[in-house]
Automatic annotation (TrEMBL):
Main location: membrane
Keyword Disulfide bond: yes
Compartments where found: Membrane
GO terms classed as biological process: adenylate cyclase-activating G protein-coupled receptor signaling pathway; cell surface receptor signaling pathway
Signal peptide boundaries: 1-19
Lineage start: Eukaryota, Metazoa, Chordata, Craniata, Vertebrata
Assigned keywords, A-Z: Disulfide bond, Membrane, Signal, Transmembrane, Transmembrane helix
Location of the GAIN-B domain: 91-235
Record GO cellular component, one term: plasma membrane
Pfam families in the record: 7tm_2, GPS
Protein name, UniProt field: Adhesion G protein-coupled receptor G3
PANTHER family membership: ADHESION G-PROTEIN COUPLED RECEPTOR, ADHESION G-PROTEIN COUPLED RECEPTOR G5
SMART domains: GPS (SM00303)
Length: 440
């Protein structure tokens, strides 16, 4: 059956691809070709949910089997497709589609736009299939019916002969709404998982607020995408309005600013007081204070830097923010270690060059971790969404790789927490033993 459709497409659709000077061709199919296509992909809704799923797979396979040497646009009834042949070197590109046409440039009445990241690194031998299609009116009594998809619209993205997944730079699919969204609902980006025949949100997050007329699905893979309308509070993930997000942002900035001022005052008091400077404990405290100052200094302007076009500036900000956070954790651990030594040595620490050795650990360990991350892949530092759960598009400069983020920050924090808890329990036991010995 697949070869029948391929034959119909070749026979009834004329493609003038002899010229190499064009980038986009709009292809019109004859009624016979359209009938042939509809015979292959039954989008009338009479075949049921399971058959519609199979038809979607057939659409992708059929489009991928079309042999072309230039970018073309195809329209068949409810299906609009763009077969895109990229040029080398591959750069970020945006594809557009309406209900009647698709192209590399903005088309009239655009309903869908897809931004492909530079990370794809595709060339003339790779054909990108981008399809905008309307699903059939499905029986709503069907428990797996596709009527839940907003506007019955599905977006197909694939690369011929290549699986695209695990992207660090996500592909952004923006769909326009043709009606207002009620307050009790929110759009949620899903993809169709053919192994389970169900929708899933894995690898995708939704960028949207109630005052927007479109929704952006930011995903790390190519597949079949759709927007489902769900309850605004479903999954414990209530949507915050843009105004609420701004208020929370101001609260964060004000709180961090007050913290920064207090920390700077603490450093000034330490510098001007000789007694404090000679105290070992105060020297450790002040190193923790300096780490917190660095953390605030690099966190507060991070959002503004992320909006700046300079990638090197964002790289520095992300690296410095990561380093200062790790330094804060490390000095927290050294605080616990110092407290343990105070009680074990009975306030008489006689370690040679004690503060210097602690400083090597406190500032050196974070430097080693950050250096290893940069050596592995410097692109791990870059633009990231500040809060994915609230579907806000605010970005900061930080760690873009989730695994690196979890291992180096959450992992180190867990180790510090367990270490300090151990020091705390040992310290409490020591104090209790001293009290018991005095009573005896």
């Amino acid at each position: 059956m697949k070869w029948l459709i391929l034959f119909c497409l070749v026979f009834f659709v004329y493609l003038d691809v002899s010229s190499q000077n064009f980038t986009n061709i709009s292809v019109k199919a004859s009624p016979d070709a359209e009938k042939c296509m509809n015979y292959k992909v039954n989008l009338s809704g009479t075949g049921g949910y399971a058959n519609t799923i199979k038809d979607l797979e057939n659409i992708e396979k059929t489009l991928e089997n079309i042999n072309i040497n230039a970018t073309i646009s195809i329209s068949f009834g409810n299906i609009v497709a763009l077969l895109f042949i990229p040029t080398a070197p591959f750069k970020s590109v945006t594809l557009h589609a309406s209900d009647s046409q698709a192209g590399l440039k903005n088309v009239s009445n655009t309903t869908v736009s897809v931004e492909l990241p530079e990370e794809l690194n595709l060339g003339p031998t790779n054909m990108i299939v981008f399809s905008n299609l309307k699903l059939p009116e499905t029986n709503k009594s069907d428990p797996g019916a596709l009527f839940e998809v907003y506007d019955r619209r599905m977006i197909i993205l694939s690369v011929k002969g290549k699986n695209i997944s695990g992207l660090r730079q996500p592909v952004n699919i923006t769909m326009k709404f043709n009606q207002n969204i009620i307050q009790t609902q929110r759009p949620s980006c899903h993809f169709l998982n053919f192994s389970t025949n169900n929708f899933s949100t894995d690898g995708c997050h939704t960028i949207w607020t109630h005052d927007q007329s479109n929704v952006t699905c930011s995903c790390d893979h190519f597949t079949y995408f759709g927007v489902l309308m769900v309850s605004a509070s479903s999954g414990g993930d209530a949507v915050l309005s843009k105004k609420d997000m701004e208020i929370l942002s101001y609260i964060t900035i004000i709180g961090c600013s007050f913290s920064l001022v207090a920390l700077v005052i603490t450093v000034l008091l330490f510098i001007t007081n000789r007694t404090l400077r000679e105290d070992l404990s105060m020297n450790i405290h002040i190193n923790l204070v300096i780490a917190l100052i660095l953390l605030n200094l690099h966190f507060l302007p991070s959002q503004a830097v992320a909006a700046h076009p300079s990638t090197w500036l964002c790289f520095y900000m992300a690296l410095a923010l990561h380093y200062s956070l790790l330094a804060t954790f490390t000095w927290m651990a050294l605080e616990g270690f110092h407290l343990y030594l105070l009680l074990v040595k009975i306030f008489n620490i006689s370690v040679s060059r004690y503060i210097f050795k602690l400083s090597v650990v406190g500032w050196g360990v974070p430097a080693v971790i950050v250096s290893v991350v940069v050596i592995i892949d410097r692109s791990f530092y870059g633009h990231v969404l500040l809060d994915k759960s609230n579907h806000d598009d605010t970005k900061i400069c930080y760690i873009s790789n989730e695994i690196v983020k979890v291992v180096t920050t959450t992992g180190l924090f867990t180790m510090v927490f367990l270490f300090n808890m151990t020091m705390f329990m040992v310290t409490v036991k020591r104090v209790l033993n001293v009290g018991y010995n005095k009573e005896v």
